[in-house]
Amino acid sequence: MAGKIFYREREKYVDGSKTPRYQLIGLLGVDMKIQGHHLRMSELKFLAEAAGAELVMLPRGPKHKEEKVEV
């Protein structure tokens, strides 16, 4: 079974800032230790590829339905 890496967009992310945009939420079926919580998409993709895992973006709650998230 391939593992899954769950992530979501950070709440306090500001467009144009040079800080990581995504927050790691959890791992399923992947034996991996992560030192940071805030990661860039390129870092998430590298980790998923190296572990043979699938990236899963968690949906936002009903309060944020009108906002669109671009990946």
Short description:
The chain has one helix spanning 41-51, and strands at residues 4-9, 22-28, 38-39, 54-57.
Care to describe what's here?
With 71 residues, this protein is an alpha+beta fold. It has one helix at 41-51; strands at residues 4-9, 22-28, 38-39, 54-57. The chain contains one helix and four strands; from the N terminus they run βββαβ. The chain has a four-stranded mixed β-sheet, covered by helices on one side. It is globular.
Helices and strands in order, then pairings?
Layout: E1 4-9, E2 22-28, E3 38-39, H1 41-51, E4 54-57
Parallel strand pairs: 1-4
Antiparallel strand pairs: 1-2, 2-3
Features:
71 residues; alpha+beta; globular
Which strand order does the major sheet show?
3-2-1-4
Number of contiguous helices: 1
Q: Provide the low-confidence segments as ranges.
A: none
Q: List SSEs in N-to-C order.
A: EEEHE
Number of strands: 4
Tell me the radius of gyration.
13 Å
* Approximate helicity band: 10-25%
